[in-house]
Amino acid sequence: MTIHAASFRELRLDRLSRDFGTHNALKDVSLTIQQGEFIALLGPSGCGKSTTLNIIAGLLPATGGGIWLDDKRIDPLRPEERGFGMVFQNYALFPHMSVNKNIGFGLKMRGTPKAEIERRVAEAVGLVRLQGQTEKLPGQLSGGQQQRVAIARAIVVEPPLVLMDEPLSNLDAKLRLEMRAEIRRIHNTLGATTIYVTHDQEEALSLADRIVVMRDGQVRQVGIPEDLFSRPDHLDVAEFMGFRNKIAGKAASVSGEHATVAIDGAAILGRARNTIAQGAAAHLAIRPEDLHPVAAGSVGLKAQVISTEFRGREFVGFARMADGTDLSFLAHDKLAPGSEVTLAAEPDRVLVYGAAA
Amino acid sequence: MSDTASSIPLSQRLAARGLDGLTLLVVPAILFSLALFIYPFFYGLFLSFNPKAGGALANYQRFFSDSFLYGTIATTLWLALPVTVLTLLMAIPIAFRVRTMKHQRLLTTILVIPITLGTVLVAQGLLNYLGPQGWFNRALLTMGLISTPVKLLHNYWGVMISLVITGFPFTFLLTLSYLSGVDPALEQAGATLGAGPWQRFKHILLPLLLPGLAITFCLSFVQAFSVFPSAVLLGAPAGPTRVISIAAYQAAFEEYDYSMASAVAMIMGVVQLSIVVAVLAARGLLYRGPAGGGKG
Q1: A→B interface, C-beta within 8 Å
Q2: pTM, 2 dp
Q3: Chain-chain contact of B194 with A153 (C-beta, under 8 angstroms)
Q4: pLDDT tens digits for chain A (357 residues)?
Q5: Cα Rg for chain B, rounded, in angstroms?
Q6: Would you list the domain boundaries of chain A?
Q7: SS3 for B116?
Q8: Please, are residues B284 and B275 in contact by the beta-carbon 8 Å criterion?
Q9: Helix, strand, coil: what percent of chain B each, to 5?
């Protein structure tokens, strides 16, 4: 393998900001990325993740802050001077060029000798497994193949940084899984530093070395997938990471790691994730797959069943509490709509957030 | 016909081929073009082979043996081709600039005003503006750039300038619409791959625009080729700007020879058609697929 990543030590985003008129798309985003890392920028639409990526690529000027590649400030550079590889959401393949020409475009622009272009394009084609398709036009390829061309085109120039903007969002579910594994494999092979934008937490969890969760133009939490999955720092990050049940209550007692929250007469024990003042408002966050029906009379959340859906191995249930809070949970049996149910989760799986979150 | 085919009602079989009740809506359009285009065309064609005197081809023989007549083809081409190329060359960079502008609509409106004014009003304006005592010459004289007024009226240049002014908005609008059809992500992709502005234009935008520019060229050319008002008002209709439509006009309304006029019109049509066919044939060699980035 002769395609390899150009080397640098770290990429530093220093208080990046972007104003669109009165609207702040990005507010003081700072982040340091080490060479070889696979970073996922994760967040709901409008959180500023694509804006961040476009600013790094040079396609959008920042209105504040700077970008540093080691000791070199790169944000004044035009995109063609930065030399980063970018994979676009709609692939942005040149429709009038063959697969070979598309992949070789970046090398041609760099004035690479023809023989070397041919050699490196062939190698990139092999890496993304597109042998035999090289003389076709992009319009003659399937979505997954177009995606591979886009990736090959971005990496063949051996960029120090590969930027990917929701590259899998236009593919169907099966292909998405395949390409996810493919992207990870290519990253492992080349070791190119990658920044990957997605709104799909599963994608981010499975691909990234570190995840940057963004919301409202700000970085909310940076961490390894395992930490973000089980220990989100904020209630909104927890909700986004799949803790879909959010239940309001009052903190009854707090002792170190643990907190008890009084909800509808029941005292629910959970793990405290931030500073919680005794007697103040607090929220529980619980994943639907951790919330199960327990025997009537046990300590838990009382609710009325709205419906249950069969999901193969178990049922997904929907219920509403007396104060109107909707809950979703997993059950082994079908429950009659309208019946009363008490739901509980392992204390370790219950996160408690104080009002500050 | 097989049993299965005949068991399907005729209306459904027609619908499968795209013929249904809605198809009837094109009937007025067909009648309209039959009455106003197809019939007059064949009437004129027929008329042109029935000359006042001589055999069926007498009109055509006369046209191609009289330099005063056949010369009009070259005169008209010598106006229409440079005008078309010039408007296209002006339209491309302006469309590029306008595409990324905030107040695109305002500028587009300003640029389109010459279309709405019509050729005669533009000619009238130019008569004042470009004349020996007009602002243009006086400005140049005052600045000391020239010592005698530049002659821009009643010659080739007057017609040329007015054709560019009236033809440009149309060319510009078409170019802008073709340019807007190119996915902006393609240029961004080109930039991230190291292509500077000129390389992006040369390798990405131009190849995707060329088919559209060919169409624009044809339409603008046909417009310029049928020039009449400005050739009369601003040109020298007896000499350097005696265009082919003037020859047809003179045959019809000065000699009252409708047959000869029809023959001139037919020749005019053939010349236009051959240029258009040549351009479209060249266009057939180009990439003509979508100008977007695949499955978007």
Answers
A1: 57-59, 78-80, 82-86, 88, 90-96, 105-106, 109-110, 137-139, 141, 143, 146, 153-154, 157, 163, 170
A2: 0.82
A3: no
A4: 455 556 788 999 999 999 887 778 899 999 999 999 999 999 998 899 999 999 999 999 999 999 999 989 999 999 999 989 999 999 999 999 999 999 999 999 999 999 999 999 999 999 888 999 999 999 999 988 999 999 999 999 989 899 999 999 888 888 888 889 989 998 998 888 999 999 999 999 999 999 999 999 999 999 999 999 999 999 999 998 989 999 999 998 888 889 999 998 889 999 998 888 888 899 999 999 999 999 988 899 999 999 999 988 899 999 999 999 999 999 998 899 999 999 999 999 999 998 764
A5: 25
A6: 10-235, 245-354
A7: helix
A8: no
A9: 75, 0, 25
Which of B185, B196, B290 faces A80 most closely, judged by CB atoms?
B196
- Beta strands A266-272 and A351-354 are parallel
Chain A residues with beta carbon closer than 8 angstroms to that of B183: 90, 92
Largest CA distance in chain B: 91
Gap between the Cα atoms of A323 and A251, Å rounded: 17
Architecture of domain A10-235: 3-Layer(aba) Sandwich (3.40)
The yes/no answer to whether this complex scores an ipTM above 0.85 is no
Residues on chain A touching B283 (C-beta within 8 angstroms): none
Q: φ and ψ at A219, to 5 degrees?
A: -80, 125
pLDDT for B207-230, tens place per residue? 999 999 999 999 999 999 998 888
* CATH topology (fold) of A245-354: OB fold (Dihydrolipoamide Acetyltransferase, E2P) (2.40.50)
> CATH classification of B62-283 is 1.20.1250.20, yes or no?
no
Residues whose CB is less than 8 angstroms from the CB of residue B226 and which lie 6 or more positions away in sequence, other chains included = B245, B268, B272
The C-alpha atoms of residue B204 and residue A138 are separated, in whole angstroms, by 14
* Cα–Cα distance measured from residue B83 to residue B268, given in angstroms and rounded to the nearest whole number: 17
Q: Which amino acid is at B125?
A: G
* Alpha-carbon gap, residue B293 to B283, rounded angstroms: 21
Return the C-alpha torsion angle B187, B189, B192, B197, nearest 10: -20
What residue segments make up the domains of chain B, in order of their start?
62-283
Give the nearest partner residue to A96 out of B191, B208, B296, using CB atoms: B208
A141 by Cβ neighbours in 10 Å (0-12 / 13-18 / 19+) ranks as buried
By CB atoms closer than 10 A (0-12, 13-18, 19+), residue A211 is buried
For testing contact with chain B, the best of A56, A78, A88 (most B CBs within 10 A): A88
